[in-house]
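Worked example 3 (structure in, sequence out).
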């Protein structure tokens, strides 16, 4: 079974498998009479169809999960940056007041910032009037607490989105394996059905073929350069061979 990384979203190989399944199911609709209703072949086509529908549905969930992760990550960054600014304002103001307890964290991670914001809010509560007297906003403690809640909410949303995406990826891998297993059983049956049907046999072979992956652009460039060098080398060898032959003829 081919494993799929939880970070992959319809990889190139998965897309080529998906396209092959589409062709197989179109073939089934086109050749119903050949396949026969409720036959062994028809039952295997049903399994392929069920797996295809699962892949299609889960691919949509996988893509939406990816978008949700991206959005929650963006929101988390915005909330973190705003909370860090509020923490820095409290820390600088406290330093100007001669209070040393409000140190910025060395750890720049989201959870560390949230923990420090929670501590700042607690320490600042009895000193609220003094901070406001130094021109801190009247709601600065509420802002710290809201920032903590925002980061924690973003972390939870991102974790949930990743979990949904991972579940969709696993479901796709399972359905794809089921489709390929059904096709493995179906292939010899179809070979028997089409062996004496010249027009249909090549059609079935064509729909079952998984297209090869296109060569990467860099690899194409390497092949092109290699081909050019090979051509130049062949030309040089031919020229050398021709010159050597003529020289031997003169000597003879």
């Amino acid at each position: 079974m081919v494993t799929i990384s939880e970070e992959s979203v319809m990889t190139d190989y998965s897309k080529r498998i998906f396209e092959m399944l589409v062709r197989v199911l179109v073939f089934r609709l086109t050749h119903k009479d050949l396949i026969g209703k409720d036959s062994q072949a028809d039952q295997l086509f049903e399994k392929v169809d069920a797996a295809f529908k699962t892949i299609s549905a889960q691919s949509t969930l996988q893509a939406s999960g990816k978008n949700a992760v991206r959005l929650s990550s963006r929101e988390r960054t915005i909330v973190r940056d705003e909370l860090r600014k509020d923490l820095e304002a409290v820390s600088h103001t406290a330093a100007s007041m001669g209070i040393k307890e409000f140190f910025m964290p060395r750890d720049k991670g989201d959870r560390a910032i949230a923990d420090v914001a929670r501590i700042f809010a607690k320490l600042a509560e009895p000193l609220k009037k003094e901070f406001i007297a130094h021109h801190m906003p009247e709601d600065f403690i509420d802002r710290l607490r809201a920032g903590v809640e925002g980061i924690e909410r973003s972390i939870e949303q991102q974790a949930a989105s990743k979990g949904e995406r991972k579940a969709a990826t696993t479901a796709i891998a399972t359905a794809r394996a089921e489709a390929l297993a059904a096709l493995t059983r179906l292939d010899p049956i179809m070979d028997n059905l089409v062996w004496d049907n010249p027009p249909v046999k090549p059609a079935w072979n064509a729909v079952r073929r998984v297209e090869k992956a296109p060569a990467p652009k860099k690899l194409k460039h390497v092949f092109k350069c290699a081909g050019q060098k090979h051509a130049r080398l062949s030309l040089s060898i031919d020229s050398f061979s021709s010159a050597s032959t003529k020289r031997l003829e003169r000597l003879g």
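Notes: Residues 124 and 154 are 25 Å apart (CA to CA). The radius of gyration is 33 Å.
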